């Protein structure tokens, strides 16, 4: 079982906390000789596969690392422009790791805001007043669970569809937020959460939840 990530969204729809716990990305690393038998292009400041598939590498997959050096957008971590580097025969043979593109910070902010809007739409579509809004979205690869407090803060967890005990985990996260963020004299309400104790205890809670499937009475 796995819990992939945690999001905390304030009542205005702003992302104030996000943690990637596990990533289910499918990644493939292969050694290539020149010329590269895949067609690459820059899309949304990432280098992605636009044509050609092989050995688990698919169209839309992004370049994640070259020769073990991580990639940041169009450049490697040591400053090389990726397409220019891959176009130079003297750099071959080389190893490239491909996989689903990682979400950028801006994309996470945008997606949190979009879910906030969907949550409001879900409440308005309800045939009965006082709807709780969207509590769960389910796909074949993950479930998104949401718990909204009375003050409008939303706690969201993305998990494996088979993971049990998420409702209890959401309330545990709310408890940690109350204990380590709200009681922190340096924390301002509705602002990004930067609290080491909150981070540490949240990671511990996720680990317990993944192993046990739920929380016992003593958690």
Automatic annotation (TrEMBL):
<dbReference type="GO" id="GO:0005783">
    <property type="term" value="C:endoplasmic reticulum"/>
</dbReference>
<keyword id="KW-0333">Golgi apparatus</keyword>
<comment type="similarity">
    <text>Belongs to the TRAPP small subunits family. TRAPPC4 subfamily.</text>
</comment>
<dbReference type="Pfam" id="PF04099">
    <property type="entry name" value="Sybindin"/>
</dbReference>
<comment type="function">
    <text>Core component of the TRAPP complexes which has a function of guanine nucleotide exchange factor activity for Rab1 GTPase. Plays a role in vesicular transport from endoplasmic reticulum to Golgi and autophagy. May play a role in dendrite postsynaptic membrane trafficking.</text>
</comment>
<comment type="subunit">
    <text>Component of the multisubunit TRAPP (transport protein particle) complex, which includes at least TRAPPC2, TRAPPC2L, TRAPPC3, TRAPPC3L, TRAPPC4, TRAPPC5, TRAPPC8, TRAPPC9, TRAPPC10, TRAPPC11 and TRAPPC12. Interacts with SDC2.</text>
</comment>
<protein>
    <recommendedName>
        <fullName>Trafficking protein particle complex subunit</fullName>
    </recommendedName>
</protein>
<comment type="subunit">
    <text>Part of the multisubunit transport protein particle (TRAPP) complex.</text>
</comment>
<keyword id="KW-0813">Transport</keyword>
<keyword id="KW-0256">Endoplasmic reticulum</keyword>
<dbReference type="GO" id="GO:0006888">
    <property type="term" value="P:endoplasmic reticulum to Golgi vesicle-mediated transport"/>
</dbReference>
<dbReference type="GO" id="GO:0030008">
    <property type="term" value="C:TRAPP complex"/>
</dbReference>
<dbReference type="GO" id="GO:0005794">
    <property type="term" value="C:Golgi apparatus"/>
</dbReference>
<dbReference type="InterPro" id="IPR011012">
    <property type="entry name" value="Longin-like_dom_sf"/>
</dbReference>
<keyword id="KW-0931">ER-Golgi transport</keyword>
<dbReference type="InterPro" id="IPR007233">
    <property type="entry name" value="TRAPPC"/>
</dbReference>
């Amino acid at each position: 079982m796995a819990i992939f990530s945690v999001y905390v969204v304030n009542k205005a729809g702003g992302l104030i906390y996000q943690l990637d716990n596990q990533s289910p990305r499918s990644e493939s690393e292969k050694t290539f000789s020149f010329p590269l038998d895949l067609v690459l292009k820059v899309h949304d400041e990432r280098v992605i596969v636009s044509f050609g598939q092989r050995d688990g590498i698919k169209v839309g997959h992004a370049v994640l690392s070259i020769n073990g050096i991580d990639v940041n957008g169009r450049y490697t971590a040591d400053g090389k422009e990726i397409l220019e580097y891959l176009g130079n025969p003297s750099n071959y043979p080389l190893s490239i790791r491909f996989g689903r593109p990682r979400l950028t910070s801006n994309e996470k902010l945008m997606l949190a805001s979009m879910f906030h809007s969907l949550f409001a739409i879900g409440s308005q579509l309800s045939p009965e007043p006082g709807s709780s809004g969207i509590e769960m979205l389910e796909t074949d690869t993950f479930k998104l669970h949401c718990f909204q407090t009375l003050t409008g803060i939303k706690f969201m967890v993305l998990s494996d569809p088979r993971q049990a005990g998420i409702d209890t985990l959401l309330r545990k996260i709310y408890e940690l937020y109350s204990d380590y963020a709200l009681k922190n004299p340096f924390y301002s309400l509705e602002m990004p959460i930067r609290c080491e104790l909150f981070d540490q205890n949240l990671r511990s809670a996720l680990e317990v939840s993944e192993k046990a499937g739920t929380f016992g009475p003593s958690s």
